[in-house]
C-alpha cells in the first residue's frame, strides 16, 4: 500500500460523509500524518443498519494520530455547511483540503424513482458538492495546499450509463461537472480533481445494495484513501483530472493490487461509468474467471436446457436454509423463444418454483429474454452485468434481487 510521507501534517481536511466508508478511510489516512479532520456528516446517533457515527469516527481519527472535529452536517443545508466551516477555521486556522464524499444513490429507472429520491440525489450529490465547495473556496485560496476532491466518475456520455438509473447518473455527473468548471475557474489557485474506483468498494452501502457475499467481489476503501492521499500531496497544477484509483497507484509504483482486495484472487466487480461498456466489462470478467463456468472457456459444452429444465434444477436446489436466509418471492417475466411468467418462492413454507404467478405478491419482478435467463442461472451471465447492460430489468427490492446470486452460484454445477 502507499506509505505515508508526513506531508499532510498540520493540514486541515473538511470531509463530507466521513463517518464511515471511503470518507472515513481518507480521514484515517490523513490522520496518520497528523492532519486535522473535520467530519461533516449527518450520523450523530447510531444507525440501525449502518455502522459508525461522527463521534466514533472522531475517536478513530485521534487514535490514528490526527485531530478531529465532528460536525453534524446535512450537505443540503447551507447554514449547517457554513457553521461547520466556521468552526473548522476557528479550531484549526483554515481549510486546506475539501473532500466531497457525501452521496445518495438509487439505482432505479425513471418511472420507479420517486421525486423525493430524485431531490435527495440532486441535493446531496450535485448541490451539496457545489455548496461545500462554494463555502470552502475563500479559505482554500489562502492555503498552500488547496485541493478539492470530488468522489465522482469520469464524464462518459454513453447512453448505457443513463438508461437504467437516469436520475442517479445525472446527480453523480453533476459532481464531475463541478470539477470540470471549478478546475478551470481556479486554475493556479486551487487543484480540483475527481476520484473514482476501478472496481466496487466494500462499504456498508455496498452491503445494502449487493447483499451477502458481495464483499468478495470488492476492494477495501483503503485503495481510495491511498489514491486520495497521492492527489493531496501533488502540486496545485495537478488539476482538472478524472482519476481512477488503480491507475494512479500503479503510477505511484504500487504493483500488488491484491493488498486492497477483500478476498485476494477473487474476481472483482467493475464499477459504473468507466470507459468500457457493460458488455465489454462482462466479457473481461469472463476472461479473468468471473465464475467457474467461465473458466472452462471455449471447451465448455453449449447449454441447451430450456427454461423449464432450468426451473426443475432450481426447484431441486430449494431447501429450508435457502428459504430462511432469503425471505423473498421472485417473479420472472420472460420474452423471446420461451415467453412466459415463472416464479421462485423463497419465503413461504418450504419454498417452491414453477410456471405461472406466485400465490403471494412478488417482492421482486425480473424481466429478461428467456435465453439470457438460462445463461444467468448457468453462470454464463452475471446478474449484475445483466442489469448494468439493460438485459435484466428489476422492479422491487434490489437487495433481495442481488441475494438471488448466491443461490445461482450453488446451482451452476448442476446446470
TrEMBL record:
GO MF terms listed in the record are: oxidoreductase activity
Which InterPro entries does the protein's record reference?
Answer: HSDL2, NAD(P)-bd_dom_sf, SCP2_sterol-bd_dom, SCP2_sterol-bd_dom_sf, SDR_fam
* Cellular component aspect of the GO annotation: mitochondrion; peroxisome
The family database entries (Pfam families) matched by this protein are listed as: adh_short, SCP2
Mind listing the UniProt keywords for this protein, alphabetically?
A: Mitochondrion, NADP, Oxidoreductase, Peroxisome
Query: Where does it localize?
Result: Mitochondrion; Peroxisome
Ranges of residues in domain SCP2: 319-408
Annotated function: Has apparently no steroid dehydrogenase activity. Might act as a metabolic regulator that affects systemic adaptation to nutritional cues.
As for family, the record states: Belongs to the short-chain dehydrogenases/reductases (SDR) family.
Q: What is this protein called?
A: Hydroxysteroid dehydrogenase-like protein 2
Q: Which organism is it from?
A: Hymenochirus boettgeri (Congo dwarf clawed frog)
Amino acid at each position: 500500500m502507499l506509505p505515508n510521507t508526513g506531508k499532510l501534517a498540520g493540514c486541515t481536511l473538511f470531509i463530507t460523509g466521513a463517518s464511515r466508508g471511503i470518507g472515513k478511510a481518507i480521514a484515517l489516512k490523513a490522520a496518520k500524518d497528523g492532519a486535522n479532520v473535520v467530519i461533516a456528516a449527518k450520523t450523530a446517533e447510531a444507525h440501525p443498519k449502518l455502522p459508525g457515527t461522527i463521534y466514533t469516527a472522531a475517536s478513530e481519527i485521534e487514535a490514528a494520530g490526527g485531530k478531529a472535529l465532528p460536525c453534524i452536517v446535512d450537505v443540503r443545508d447551507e447554514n449547517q455547511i457554513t457553521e461547520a466551516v466556521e468552526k473548522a477555521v476557528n479550531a484549526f486556522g483554515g481549510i486546506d483540503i475539501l473532500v466531497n464524499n457525501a452521496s445518495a444513490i438509487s439505482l432505479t429507472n425513471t418511472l420507479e424513482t420517486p421525486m423525493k429520491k430524485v431531490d435527495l440525489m440532486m441535493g446531496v450529490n450535485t448541490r451539496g458538492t457545489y455548496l461545500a465547495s462554494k463555502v470552502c473556496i475563500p479559505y482554500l485560496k489562502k492555503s498552500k495546499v488547496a485541493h478539492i476532491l470530488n468522489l465522482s466518475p469520469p464524464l462518459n456520455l454513453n447512453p448505457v450509463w443513463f438508461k437504467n438509473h437516469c436520475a442517479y447518473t445525472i446527480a453523480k455527473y453533476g459532481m464531475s461537472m463541478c470539477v470540470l468548471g471549478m478546475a478551470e475557474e481556479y486554475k493556479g489557485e486551487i487543484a480540483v480533481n475527481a476520484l473514482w474506483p476501478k472496481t466496487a468498494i466494500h462499504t456498508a452501502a455496498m452491503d445494502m445494495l449487493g447483499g451477502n457475499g458481495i464483499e468478495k467481489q470488492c476492494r477495501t476503501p483503503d485503495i481510495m484513501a491511498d489514491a486520495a492521499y497521492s492527489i493531496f500531496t501533488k502540486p496545485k497544477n495537478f488539476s482538472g483530472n478524472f482519476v481512477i484509483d488503480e491507475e494512479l497507484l500503479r503510477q505511484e509504483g504500487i504493483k500488488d493490487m491484491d493488498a486492497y482486495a477483500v478476498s485476494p484472487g477473487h474476481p472483482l466487480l467493475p464499477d459504473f461509468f468507466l470507459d468500457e461498456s457493460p458488455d465489454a466489462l462482462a466479457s473481461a470478467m469472463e476472461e479473468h474467471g468471473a465464475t467457474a463456468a467461465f473458466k472452462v472457456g471455449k471447451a465448455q459444452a453449449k447449454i441447451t436446457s430450456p427454461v423449464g429444465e432450468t426451473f426443475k434444477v432450481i426447484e431441486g436446489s430449494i431447501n429450508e436454509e435457502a428459504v430462511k436466509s432469503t425471505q423473498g418471492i421472485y417473479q420472472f417475466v420472460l420474452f423471446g423463444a420461451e415467453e412466459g411468467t415463472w416464479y421462485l418462492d423463497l419465503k413461504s413454507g418450504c419454498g417452491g418454483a414453477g410456471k405461472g404467478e406466485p400465490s403471494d405478491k412478488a417482492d421482486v419482478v425480473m424481466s429478461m429474454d428467456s435465453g439470457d435467463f438460462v445463461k444467468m442461472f448457468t453462470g454464463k451471465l452475471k446478474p449484475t452485468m445483466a442489469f448494468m447492460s439493460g438485459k435484466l430489468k428489476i422492479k422491487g427490492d434490489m437487495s433481495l434481487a442481488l441475494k438471488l446470486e448466491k443461490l445461482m452460484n450453488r446451482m451452476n454445477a448442476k446446470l
